[in-house]
Amino acid sequence: MAHKAAQWPSEETLLLWKREQARLKARMVDRDTEAWQRDPTFSGLQRVGGVDVSFVNGDSDRACASLVVLSYPELKVVYEDSHMVHLKAPYVSGFLAFREVPFLVELVQRLQEKEPGFMPQVLLVDGNGVLHQRGFGVACHLGVLTDLPCVGVAKKLLQVDGLENNSLHKEKIMLLQAGGDTFPLMGNSGTVLGMALKSHEHSTNPLYVSVGHRVSLEVAVRLTHHCCRFRIPEPIRQADIRSRDYIRRTLGHPGSPAQRQERSQKEQRPKVCPKDGPGAPADQGRPPEDYGRDSSTDLKDPQPGFQEQQKDQQLERTEHHEDSDLPPPPTWVQSPP
User: Fold this and answer.
1) Nearest Cα to Cα of residue 48 among 319, 283, 237
2) Per residue in 166-193, pLDDT tens?
């Protein structure tokens, strides 16, 4: 059954949100604060986290929040936690954090309380950091509230401060030849708000990396590239895969409502994976249609061109972004037959 969508915020609420963003922004740190960040090889970095929120088919305010922690540099999942949430705020451009961050903070707090040894040393966030209407996107918001280094990784360009996805921008994208190539995102203010990154040799579309908290832009870009087996950084990709899988398992269980509730409660408990990660990677033993929104990046041998175009068309249909004033469409999740 679909739930009633969250009510559109009043002007007073929007003003309070702006004030809260300004208050938290004063606490944001846009430089490296950790020893591993200053090492060219990231020596000392052992755990990288990723977060994601996936939506339920036909339900604009019901979703699954997911946190994963991967070993570095192996990029194997060592911890995962997902649970269903009811989003209390609607999607409003520039205020995504008020819709999603409270649930992500809860996941980080659960990890700190139950398995502090698996706390990530940095979080990769599916969204923007300082590349934002008021210089304080979801990655900044989450970073300040958790006091963890955070990196914003967006799949589409947020068109602020004069940045546009125009012909000149597309020409710059065409000049990105090899994985790791970048160009700066400089707005009309003259400030570099982030970097466009060709994250994989076969990717035709860049990622848009920006500072979240307690990290420099140079380190944010380099770390994002090092975490990419495919176009999407592995921590974010795994959080996305596992949140969607959790929705399928939770809402697709056969049996009585009581049995489904019991299974759901069990699955909401944080899961610590074996030392070498789960028994099999999430992209094995699963048909391609189950990989979710980044299906082409889940292939063992990704191909350039057609598959990337298909993936980006799917992303435009299914993902929420802060570059539109319209509420995002819900993600379509199919239950198993």
Assistant:
1) 237
2) 999 999 999 999 999 999 999 999 999 9
